[in-house]
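Sample intake sheet
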Amino acid sequence: MKLLRWLVGLLGTLPLFAFDAQADQDIPRSSGVITVRGEPHTYLAEGKGEPCIVVGFAPQYPALFSTRLKQHISLIYVDYKNSWDALDESKVQATTLDSLVEEIDDVRKAFALERVCVLGHSTPGLVAIEYAARHPERTSRLILVAVTPFYNRELTETQLVLAGALGVTLLFDFVRKWVS
């Protein structure tokens, strides 16, 4: 019964992800490289309207946001250096919340934006929240998608119990190792 309710809920969301080839062709796109703190950062911008920096792993997001959303918001995806698949482990260890927040602001400056919308999904949403809290004068909007209000060991353990009850094990194996 739980599985059936989950499937019905999932099917109900399909119109949000439906691909409309003609409408998608009308979405303006640009890509390139910007320099932030002396480092090259690739980017993709797509959509119409208010510019919005998407915080997180850039290759993951373009396919997830609907054409309908892109008709109203210009999404800017930037692959943040040293936060994913970095070549130098010492640079990864030097990456902090402070450095990620300032990197967002450096991206804003690189696009010559006085104020910007910031969108964060899941854990990167916490970085978006921190950016908006530190720079309210530079933040036009904050969009959060499935962001946990806080992240700590107790919450992680609760998620593991729930995942086990639902029969989801592989997705949380990495978390189990972290909690242990």
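Comment: The first strand starts at residue 29 and ends at 36. Residues 1-18, 170-180 have pLDDT under 50 and may be disordered.
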